[in-house]
Amino acid sequence: MFTGLVEGTGEITALTPTADGLRLSATAPFDLAEVKPGDSIAVSGPCLTVVALTARTFTAEVSAETLQRTNLGGKRPGDRVNLERALRLGDRLGGHIVSGHIDCVAVLAKKTVGPQHMQIVLRLPDQWSRYVVEKGSIAVDGVSLTVNSCTGGEVSINVIPFTARHTTLADLQVGHRLNIETDIIGKYVEKLLQPQDSSGRSGVTHELLARHGFL
Predict the structure, then answer these.
(1) Is the domain of 16 the same as that of 50?
(2) Which of 43, 102, 133, 193 has its CA 20 to 30 A from that of 32?
(3) What is the dihedral of CA 42, 85, 18, 80, to 10 degrees?
(4) Could you give the CA distance from residue 34 to residue 113 in angstroms, rounded to a whole number?
């Protein structure tokens, strides 16, 4: 698990195709002496497992599923990525609960830079925008952010200068594809509100509520 509070940015040094994915190597802004094979690092959102280390870089496996769900397949050596090590028991949860399991890729539809903040508008696929709520949390390329507003498939977010400077968000341009993880709590609530009745049908319906005395 992660918090979405990025520890800093690293640079991709190598991308090596494998039989069913690729290996990604990157530098890190933190001491790699504290990292060991098997540890988890969020790389611009997706949780990846470290499989090898050098004095300056770590290498992680990227599965075919991760390539399909994220923007990592479009990265190139030299690209910057947001990095965060897994949350430790007892750490402060300064962002929100982030699993590192990406739901979808959004497109940056608009970027406005002001004196006090940067505003971005993201366009999400319809099936995922339902999990985004006003003043709720969303992880964008691994960064925990607060939603200003959401209308249809468009999500508006303010990014303060500190966050922009310490992540890759300051580099964003209209059309960029971004890894999105919606709030995991909403997905669990939706699942729990879809009980199956005796016929095998799922979902809370008027018939179901009436039968149990709620209507």
Answers:
(1) yes
(2) 102
(3) 60
(4) 37
Q: Determine the pLDDT at residue 193.
A: 78
Name which of 175, 64, 158 is nearest 116 in CA terms. 158
- How high is the mean pLDDT in each 10-residue block of the chain (215 residues)? 96 96 97 95 98 96 96 97 93 90 98 93 95 96 97 95 96 97 89 67 67 75
**pLDDT (0 to 100) of residue 163:** 96
Q: Are 123 and 109 in contact (CB under 8 A)?
A: yes
Radius of gyration of the chain from Cα atoms? 19
**81 & 108 share domain:** no
Q: Are 119 and 156 a contacting pair, CB within 8 Å?
A: yes
Alpha helices in the chain (DSSP H): 64-69, 126-129, 161-165, 184-192, 206-211
Q: Are residues 177 and 115 in the same domain?
A: yes
Burial of 63 (0-12, 13-18, 19+ CB in 10 A): middle
Q: Is residue 54 included in any domain, yes or no?
A: yes
Structural domain containing residue 126: 104-191
The CATH number covering residue 131 comes to 2.40.30.20
* Predicted pLDDT at 204: 64
Into how many domains does the chain fold? 2
Assigned token pair, 195? 């009980």
What's residue 2's pLDDT?
96
> For 79, phi and psi rounded to 5 degrees?
-70, 145
Whether residues 125 and 164 fall in one domain: yes
pLDDT at 208: 67
3-class DSSP assignment, residue 97: coil
